[in-house]
Amino acid sequence: MTPQVLLLSGLYDFSTDFVAAALKERGATFLRLNREQLATCRVTLDPVAAVIEVRSPSGLEATIDASSLRAVLFRQPIFLRNTPGYALSVAEQLERSQWSAFLRGLCVLDGSRWMNHPAKTYLAECKPYQLRVAARLGFTVPPTRIGNDLAGIRSAQLGDPLIVKSLDTVLIHEGSDCLFTYSTASDIASWHDEDLSSAPALCQEFIRDKTDLRVTVVGSNIFAVRIEEGGRGIEGDWRVRPRDQVQFVPIDLSEECARLCLRLAETLGLPFAAIDLLEAGDERKIVFVEVNPTGEWGWLVRCGLPIDMAIADWLAKPEGASCD
């Protein structure tokens, strides 16, 4: 087997499941490698020729050849975020670090289109950088301070309460529990220095009268939804609401907003981008929140948005063909 498309993903990444099904419909040959199963495969990389030989436990043999590979779907966060609640053994530490390096090494497949390239993903995941780029392009960005200096955060006068976020996605295991952080409105007047000193946090102005928008960019295609509860915007982080109470309403963006979203993805070098925006105030001003280069979108397919089809089309297009 010599695949036209390589899917680098995780075993439980259901978004990749959708893309794989769409590629099958198109008759495109593809190979999916899940990071959790790499050690069960036998893999050999020739870095100069950019050829990879893979043998799976099921007996599948594949040759990934840069000369014939059309595209790579990279659904891998750059940073290791699934910190376990126990000390890793020497063997586990070695396995994680070296497979992570191996995945980075697949950048030798430099003749293929990447969605998204690891180097571009690395930079785009940096929240300070994406905020600066968004503001430079013309997005409205909430007043923001990042750090562990309580006096410095207070002096910025971001308002009270303000929104507090982790600087990077927090996914920590404690025993059998998996801990995840959400954006939280917090009363800064009640803070003490030790509440902030141990790790930097991202603090922003709290926007009350707002409605969340999720914009998914795939090539030159845009899929947008308004996120509501009972026909109204949701105060705070909508992800803490029961999913069956939240509605995702497909919308058409204004020409200016669509232009900015496409320009942001292009500037960051991202054929795929999940962009979070707010409609704020009576004038429904558009405010930039963040962009995720490996963001989730699977639930939006159930809302009638053919994101899986658009990604499969982008990946399966022959070299030089339009990927619109």
How would you portray this structure in words?
The protein is of the alpha+beta class. It folds into 3 domains: 5-122, Rossmann fold, CATH 3.40.50; 144-205, no CATH class; 207-292, ATP-grasp fold, B domain (D-amino Acid Aminotransferase, Chain A, domain 1, 2-Layer Sandwich). Helices cover 26% and strands 30% of the residues. The strands form 5 sheets. The chain has a 5-stranded antiparallel sheet with strand order 16-15-14-17-18. It has a 4-stranded parallel sheet with strand order 2-1-6-7, covered by helices on one side. α1 packs across α9 (307-316). The model has no long low-confidence stretch (mean pLDDT 88).
Keywords:
single chain, 324 residues, alpha+beta, Rossmann fold, D-amino Acid Aminotransferase, Chain A, domain 1, 4-stranded parallel β-sheet, 9 helices, 26% helix, 30% strand
CATH T-level topology of the largest domain: Rossmann fold
How many distinct domains?
3
Oligomer: single chain
- Which class of secondary structure composition applies to the elements? alpha+beta
Rg result = 21 Å
Mean pLDDT: 88
CATH class of the largest domain: Alpha Beta
Tell me the major beta sheet: 5 strands, antiparallel
Strand order of the largest sheet: 16-15-14-17-18
Percent strand equals 25-35%
- Count every beta strand, where a strand is a DSSP E run of 2 or more residues: 18
Low-pLDDT stretches are none
Order of helices and strands: EHEEEEEHEHHEHEEEEHEEEEHEEHH
